[in-house]
Write a structure and sequence with these properties.
This protein is an alpha/beta fold. It is built from five helices and four strands, in the order αααββαβαβ.
């Protein structure tokens, strides 16, 4: 088992790193560096992150998709390999996450198909204490 470096040796090690290397390691652990001005602040943040055992976040290729499309009845006709880009309303809202207590649902869309929304998702929508819908059919913008 590898011995943990002493506090001073860890600080010394991080202090010898360049600013861009420190920022890169912090950001790879999911720590924003935008508010740090001095190098000493970056050093302290990285030393603390290492002491707390922060590890770089690895992303799978699917995590890099910048957006997802909503799955509808017509998306079922799309090939299986392309369906990975589609999410159901349940998945987007996170209804299947254990012990999640959601109180509000806000729906905003100018081309909302209320028939589909009510027929396919009504049981899920009824779980919320409040539902707010911003709607326009495009004629009264």
């Amino acid at each position: 088992r590898k011995a943990r470096p002493s506090a001073s040796s860890l600080e010394d090690e991080v202090s010898t790193m360049g600013i861009s290397a420190i920022k890169q390691e912090l950001e790879s652990c999911g720590i924003s560096t935008k508010l740090f001005i001095e190098k000493s602040e970056l050093v302290n943040a990285l030393v603390q992150a290492r002491r707390e055992g922060s590890k770089p976040i690895t992303k799978k290729q699917d995590d890099l998709i910048p957006f997802h499309l909503f799955a509808t009845s017509s998306s079922k006709r799309i090939s299986q390999d392309k369906r990975k880009y589609f999410k159901t309303l349940r998945q987007v809202i996170g209804l299947d996450v254990p012990n999640r207590q959601l109180k509000w649902l806000v729906v905003s869309n100018f081309a909302l198909d209320f028939g589909y929304l009510l027929e396919q998702t009504l049981p899920d929508i009824l779980q919320f204490h409040r539902v707010v819908v911003f709607y326009s059919d495009g004629r009264n913008s």
